[in-house]
Design brief:
Helices cover about 55% and strands about 0% of the residues. With about 120 residues, the protein is mainly alpha-helical. The chain is globular and about 50 Å long. The two termini are about 30 Å apart. The structure holds ligand OF5.
Length: about 120
Amino acid sequence: CVLKASQKRRPLSRLLEQLLRNLEKRDPNQFFAWPVNDNFAPGYSNVIRRPMDFSTMKQKIDDNEYRSLNCFISDFKLMCNNAMKYNKTGTIYHKAARRLLHAGLKQLTPQKLRPLGDILT
Ligand SMILES: COc1ccc(OC)c(-c2cc(C(C)=O)n3cccnc23)c1
């Protein structure tokens, strides 16, 4: 039988896409959906050396750039930490990043991921 396109994806890619969708739900304002634009964030590219956002993470999944779950989690943390570095404490972006990081890492604990089986090993 012919596998559907989604079934042809590598198991890790399908897992990461599912995890990404769940993380994106924690960003209702879509502050993290796209790369931060220097026009809206003056001097951003001078302060943040390694920008990251959900659309870039999705592209990296599609390009099979993530060799492991840990690499995926590192990019998620980078994205949140960038926002907490550039934006002052108390700003909506700093608060959104702290909330997103906290909620996201709770979804990525071994207890939550163990049921997904041995594709993580
Ligand atoms: C107000 O609406 C938007 C829409 C998209 C954004 O980034 C993709 C942002 C945004 C996202 C950020 C972050 C994540 O630092 N940011 C910082 C300064 C100014 N704007 C932003 C805001």
